[in-house]
Amino acid sequence: MNLDFSQIVPYIPFMLEGIWVTIRFVIVAIILGFILGTLLALCKISSIRLLRAIAGSYTSIFRGTPLILQLMLFHYAVPQLTGYDITPFMSAILAFGLNSAAYVSEIIRAGIQAVDKGQTEAAKALGVPYREMMIDIILPQAMKNILPALMNEFITLTKESALVSTIGYLDLMRRSQVVGSSLFRNFEPLLFVGVIYWLMVTGLSVLGRMVERRLNVSD
Amino acid sequence: MLVIKVENLSKKFGDNEVLKDISAEVKKGEVVSIIGPSGSGKSTFLRCINLLEKPTAGKIFVAGQELTDPKINVTKAREKVGMVFQHFHLFPHLTVLENLTYAPMKVKKETKTVAQEKARELLLKVGLAEKADAYPNSLSGGQKQRVAIARALSMEPDLMLFDEPTSALDPEMVKEVLDVMKDLAHSGMTMAVVTHEMGFAREVADRVLFLDEGRLVESGEPIPFFENPQTERAKSFLDKIL
């Protein structure tokens, strides 16, 4: 045991920059996953068979294959097919956003179906159109029920984001590896970013509990 | 003038025929009680009138408009039919006032000021003015149901449907809800009420429809119906419950 954290001090600003690099694509991926996931969930409960089939296959494919494979496909296979030189940022957003959408859609579908059927009937009886009913009545109630599951998904995504280090995206994880190989010491930089990941996830959990408390004012 | 006209209505759930060839009419300002044993199809009948259940066959007209016309805008047609449910179905994430203003603002595009003013008036009418800013979960069952009635009235319907409005209430709360319904009946509202409250049917209703096994077995004015039912089926039903 010869831990020496003083050696990584010069590299700390370099590693800290990785926080923003990671957060930036995680936020975009979460938003993309959430919006697409909501739309997919609506397709899944739709009365139109084609929409249900599309959403079902989508989920099956994105849940049924490894995330790292999807990431590689976006980053290496898309340029090969189209000639479009995709940036690591773009590949990361697409792979994580589309993958997360599959999980989010299942969470939201379950959440919508758990809302009392009477709510739909009451809204219908008042002449409220489907779109407004979903946005104002059903989804807010569904969101309240699924918030813990949704936070869990966002936390998983934040941690799994470290996978983008494999396509050369200079995120937190990748930066710790860079520092590790230039110092020939891996333990210190890895431990350092480990703490940062833990802090980020803890922050997310706190945020989740705050939102949950706000949504519970009606109880 | 007829507010509801039902012609040869049938409803099947799979192979189970719940309503069999029912024809009935309700005139403007009339209060009709729909009674019968459980499973007789009375709730389904009521729910067909605003198309929460889709009839298998037959025609339904509300205020002269055919609801069973495939070309009709169902959402639009429902605006004019208020419905009160057994389990209230208030929107739990909205305050009492928001429950009342939501549909008028979204559907009828009323301004917030107008909608709130009318909502407060309705709350006063059902005796809950002081609960405007409360959330539904903090109300008693009777209060919830009165809010639900006010919410249905906020759309200024031509017709109010009540689906067992007092069946989920504690006994001491039944009266406050029935009183609101009586006031409403006296104000000239057209009402169709599925109920087990024979007292209400007897005192307030202008007519009673008796359903059994999906058929309209008997209909008539309450006093003659309760005192001297014409059919065996109605007689034995009344013997059991009165």
Automatic annotation (TrEMBL), chain A:
Q: What is its main location?
A: membrane
Q: Which InterPro entries match?
A: AA_ABC_transptr_permease_3TM (IPR010065), ArtM/GltK/GlnP/TcyL/YhdX-like (IPR043429), MetI-like (IPR000515), MetI-like_sf (IPR035906)
Membrane topology designation: Multi-pass membrane protein
Q: Which GO terms describe its biological process?
A: amino acid transport
ABC transmembrane type-1 domain boundaries:
19-208
What cellular-component terms does GO give this entry?
ATP-binding cassette (ABC) transporter complex
Q: Where are the transmembrane segments?
A: 20-43, 50-74, 86-104, 190-211
Tell me a Gene Ontology molecular-function term this record carries.
Answer: transmembrane transporter activity
Subcellular location, in the record's words?
Answer: Cell membrane
Q: Which family does it belong to?
A: Belongs to the binding-protein-dependent transport system permease family. HisMQ subfamily.
Name of the featured protein: Amino acid ABC transporter permease
- Species name: Natronobacillus azotifigens
